[in-house]
Amino acid sequence: MAIRMPRIIKKSSKAGDVPKGHFAVYVGEKQKKRFVIPISFLSQPLFQDLLSQAEEEFGFDHPMGGVTIPCSEDVFVDLTSRLRKREGN
Does 40 map to a domain? Predict the structure, then answer.
């Protein structure tokens, strides 16, 4: 049985938009900003918490056509900075 994964980036996005090993998310409370982040973040507990919040708020119907993270841009930038340091990037 095949597992069907939801689309992560908008249909109109070009393949060159997102480098291999990365995916796009939309972040922000009023204005949504697009971020391209490494897929390695998916295994991090802090990022998994954000994804759980996104699931609670949006389910799998993300208004931007990609994964929408329900937090402020500042919080997201701080969190991804900490994750990059943990991974040694």
Answer: yes
Is this structure's pTM higher than 0.90?
A: no
Give the type of residue at 85: K
Query: pLDDT by residue (tens digit) across 50-82?
Result: 889 888 877 766 666 678 888 899 999 998 988
Q: How many domains does the chain have?
A: 1
Report the distance separating Cα 23 and Cα 4, nearest Å: 17
Domain of residue 27 covers 22-85
- Strand ranges for 21-86 from DSSP E: 22-27, 33-38, 67-69
Structure token digits, residue 85: 């340091």
